[in-house]
Design a protein that fits this description.
heterodimer, A: 370 residues, alpha/beta, Rossmann fold, CBS-domain, 6-stranded mixed β-sheet, 4-stranded antiparallel β-sheet, 16 strands, 34% helix, globular, B: 224 residues, mainly alpha, MetI-like fold, 10 helices, ABC_transp_perm/SBD (chain B), transport (chain B)
């Protein structure tokens, strides 16, 4: 467990970066520190590996004050992923990853073997190991950064806005990757970001910090969206929080219904006479798009006759995706797919809303029960 | 002209003298280059780490560089008690110039190392000295070598001034040629000085390429 015990940081010029802050992060979970710039989140994180010493208070790792360790040794036991990856430009990717094992006195061959395993683990091909960081894309550099932090198999991982410098698509991929890795590794992760969406996606618990290093709220993401502690948190979690909260509601009780479907390559004879939209699937039953009502099909059905479909809702994931699939589909029917992307059925926005209402009334009923 | 040059090199006396002076020139210019760099590096590090020392160190460097070289050659024996006509005076003087010239670029080179890279090194568990040697210094090399190239040219030309006190490498060809109104000798001195500067510069460029293989690595970016 990571524990901050009324830590305070005041710089020589009088600025207070962190104000009497106490909180703890559970072992084996991802805890996110989120807040606008100047809220002291990075300062707080750097107290853990003693890159910044608190003016008063203490930071404890598994019950031991970090000041009892030699700073350099302590740091070798705490993984650190920095903004912009912070890779060493003069070392190959493999040697970058091998940094901490080498510092701890591991033999070069051993360290490199371990580094190669880690590259694989973060999803990078082995031949990338011989390149220099400048020869990698931003997303790849971030992966190397994560691999380097994991090289010594530290129980604690500090991540300082690690994905802020990459584009949104790559960032989403890296976030998913982190969640997958965390499932395998179960590290105690302290993650700093200014992006509330990232915080809510990754954090099992989220600490919202306010300018001047005040802890505004420390809660599970669902609770943060449902009951923001004050105006600051309300404005920081932003609009759409009711909608975003649907991310935490699973859709198992949603019952997809059947709709008319045809396949790419079908002839006009196969296409049912209809007044509504028809969903078009490919040979693997994956949705390709929609055929508008009354659309004429000459000969074989091809992709260019279709209207693009909306987002796909993967069975059993959150209601947010289910609602979005219905709202984004031209037909108003959200397409539900299984884990392999195969068509399962369709849902309407009405069905999703009914489920939400049903849930609300059941919670209220429980609430008033004696 | 060519005939006269051929005659100059045909004379074993001149040939031998030119070679000796060339050797002396190399010795007198490169020894201070190394010494000056070795002096500038720790001073630059000091200025980088302690902001209060920055002003005085850079100020002292500027002052040293404004002292005329001939004056310095003559002053050093007075201050250090070295023999008046010893090559050591030239070496010390030029080492001081080199250090003064390198001071600002060394500081710039050390500061050119990106902050997130040094922070990452600290967070990985490098102790300060090892971090300097293993991370900061290698990354400062491109800027450092550009500065050393500049200082090497300056040194190679300054050595000639030492000829006025009798220790000046190829500069000896200038004083000798001037006294005897022998143009060819002066010309040989100029050309050899230029060639020497060129060769040393090429060696330094080669050294940089050898030491910074990463800076030449071609961009082959591909998304996974």
């Amino acid at each position: 467990m990571l524990e901050f015990r009324s830590v305070r940081k005041q710089y020589e010029n009088g600025t207070v970066a962190v104000q009497e802050l106490s909180m703890s992060a559970e072992t084996g979970t991802i805890t996110v520190l989120v807040g606008p710039s100047g809220c002291g989140k990075t300062t707080l994180m750097r107290m853990v590996n003693r890159m910044i010493e608190p003016s008063s208070g203490a930071v404890l790792v598994d019950g031991t004050d970090v000041r009892e360790f030699d700073a350099a040794r302590l740091r070798r036991g705490i993984g650190y992923v920095i903004q912009q990856a912070g890779l060493f430009p003069h070392r190959t990717v493999l040697d970058n990853v091998a940094t901490v094992p080498l510092l701890s006195g591991c033999r070069r061959r051993e360290a490199r073997t371990r580094a190669a395993e880690l590259l694989d683990r973060v999803g990078l091909p082995a031949d990338l190991g011989r390149r220099y960081p400048a020869q990698l894309s931003g997303g790849q550099q971030q992966r190397v950064g994560v691999a380097r932090a994991l090289a010594a198999d530290p129980p604690v991982l500090l991540m300082d806005e690690p994905f802020s410098a990459v584009d949104p698509v790559v960032r989403a991929g890296l976030q998913d990757e982190l969640l997958r890795l965390q499932e395998e590794l179960g590290k105690t992760v302290l993650f700093v970001t200014h992006d509330i969406d990232e915080a809510i996606k990754l954090g099992e618990k989220v600490a919202v910090l306010r300018q001047g290093g005040h802890l505004a709220q420390y809660a599970e993401p669902d609770a943060l969206l449902a009951e923001p502690a004050d105006d600051f948190v309300t404005s920081f979690v932003g609009r759409d929080r009711g909608y975003r909260r649907l991310s935490f509601r699973d859709s198992r009780r949603l019952r997809p219904e059947a709709t008319d479907t045809v396949h790419i390559g079908d002839t006009s004879a196969d296409v049912p006479s209809r007044a509504g939209w028809v969903l078009v699937l490919d040979a693997h039953r994956r949705p390709r798009g929609w055929l508008p009502p009354e659309a004429a099909v000459d000969g074989q059905l091809t992709e260019d006759q279709l209207v693009a479909g909306g987002s796909l809702h993967v069975e059993g994931t959150s209601l947010r995706g289910a609602l979005d699939s219905a709202l984004s589909a031209p037909s108003g029917l959200g397409v539900v797919v299984d884990g392999d992307g195969g068509y399962v059925g369709v849902v309407t926005a009405r069905q999703v809303l009914d489920l939400i209402e049903e849930h609300r009334s059941s919670v209220t009923a429980e609430g008033v029960a004696p | 002209m060519i005939e006269e040059l051929l005659r100059f090199f045909a004379s074993p006396g001149y040939r031998e003298m030119t070679l000796t002076l060339l050797g002396e020139h190399v010795y007198l210019s490169l020894t201070p280059l190394v010494l000056g760099a070795l002096l500038a590096l720790p001073l630059g590090r000091l200025a980088q780490r302690h902001h209060r020392l920055r002003g005085p160190i850079l100020g002292a460097a500027s002052v040293v560089y404004t002292i005329p070289s001939l004056a310095l050659f003559v002053l050093i024996p007075g201050v250090l008690g070295t023999p008046l006509l010893s090559p050591i005076n030239v070496i010390i003087a030029l080492a001081l110039y080199t250090a003064a010239l390198l001071m600002r670029p060394v500081l710039d080179a050390l500061e050119s190392v990106p902050g997130h890279v040094t922070a990452a090194a600290t967070a990985m568990g490098y102790r300060p000295w090892r971090r300097f040697v293993a991370v900061e210094l290698p990354l400062a090399i491109p800027v450092l070598i550009s500065a050393v190239r500049m200082a090497s040219v300056s040194n190679i030309s300054l050595v000639s001034v030492g000829a006025l006190i009798g220790i000046g490498g190829l500069g000896g060809l200038f004083t000798d040629g001037f006294e005897r109104r022998y143009m060819v000798e002066i010309l040989v001195g100029i050309v050899l000085t230029l060639l020497l500067a060129l060769v040393v510069d090429l060696v330094l460029v080669g050294l940089r390429k050898l030491l910074t293989p990463w800076s030449r690595a071609s961009k082959v970016v591909s998304e996974p």
